[in-house]
Amino acid sequence: QVQLVESGGGLVQAGGSLRLSCAASGRTFSNYAMGWFRQAPGKEREFVAAISWSGGSTYYADSVKGRFTISRDNAKNTVYLQMNSLKPEDTAVYYCAARGVGSGTTYYTSKGSYYYWGQGTQVTVSS
């Protein structure tokens, strides 16, 4: 079992920045590929960003490419999502997710591929 706890959400004006953190516990964090997803009211949960357990491979949704950066610190069992140039359409509950993998370059973009989820953190961007 892996427990995930997100933090860092809040209210920010359009154009501002936030950094989300996801702290993991329970298993060897460095063996897990990680992802960030978000869900706006009335919408499906959608992929935002993913990172392999080595940190060497990352992938982003087109809607956030160039504005968001995913990273991880395996020594701290934490994955981050740096969000810059925020837009009102980024408003959502953001979730981190984890899945154990053998390859250091593997990441996943489908929510069905992840085994563990955090409880989410609210991000609200005002115009």
Task: Describe the protein.
By secondary structure, the chain is mainly β. It is built from no helices and eleven strands. The chain has strands at 3-7, 10-13, 18-25, 32-39, 46-51, 58-60, 68-73, 78-83, 92-100, 116-117, 121-126. Strands 2, 4, 5, 6, 9, 10 and 11 form a seven-stranded mixed β-sheet that branches. The termini are far apart. The model has no long low-confidence stretch (mean pLDDT 94).
Radius of gyration, in angstroms, nearest whole number: 13 Å
Overall average residue pLDDT: 94
Beta-strand percent range: over 45%
The geometry reads as: globular
Number of strands: 11
Identify low-pLDDT runs. Answer: none
Determine the N-to-C terminus distance. 40 Å
With helices defined by DSSP (H or I, 4 residues minimum), what is the helix count?
A: 0
| Class of secondary structure makeup | mainly beta
Helical amount? under 10%
Succession of helices and strands:
EEEEEEEEEEE
Brief write-up:
By secondary structure, this protein is mainly beta.
Keywords:
four-stranded antiparallel beta sheet, seven-stranded mixed beta sheet, about 50% strand, mainly beta
Blueprint of the fold:
Elements: E1 3-7, E2 10-13, E3 18-25, E4 32-39, E5 46-51, E6 58-60, E7 68-73, E8 78-83, E9 92-100, E10 116-117, E11 121-126
Parallel strand pairs: 2-11
Antiparallel strand pairs: 1-3, 3-8, 4-5, 4-9, 5-6, 7-8, 9-10, 9-11
